[in-house]
User: Fold Polymerase nucleotidyl transferase domain-containing protein from Streptococcus pneumoniae.
Amino acid sequence: MTLAKLHFNDQGNLNGGILTNISLAQIQSTLVDNFPNSTTRTRNFQALSTFLKNLDSNIITRIWLDGSFCTQKENPKDIDVLLFFKHSPDIEKYLKDIKEKASTCLDIYQIGDKDHIEKTRPIYSHMAHNETYWMGQFGFDRNRNHKGIIELKTENLK
Assistant:
């Protein structure tokens, strides 16, 4: 697997649409180590790393990262995290539990993962619509400038 590169554009946002094949080491190097004067980036990344270690990859399939942590802002308050999940009987309890245990440095949202459901099922179009909604939320800054979204696959985190 060839790792993608993380680069900032002229607006201080990550380039590139949905950025796949990104490692945690790359995230740390680009979004933490490159900001030696930041008082929040190390804390935020440590909270994210701990959170990711505790995810069940049989339930959570993908994660999108966004927010000011994924920009050149010196001291982002938190990291925006979107969890993609497979439906299961205990999904609501599982999501509630992991969100309660998460650090306040993470702003966590969740949606069903359309990639793990048959396209013929009625809920598929709703799930596809939700993903498109979040692309719009995470894919632009407040000034309507494009922003890259980091996508992590939970199967690659272990």
Observations:
- The mean pLDDT is 93.
- The longest strand covers residues 60-66.
- The chain is about 30% helix and 20% strand.
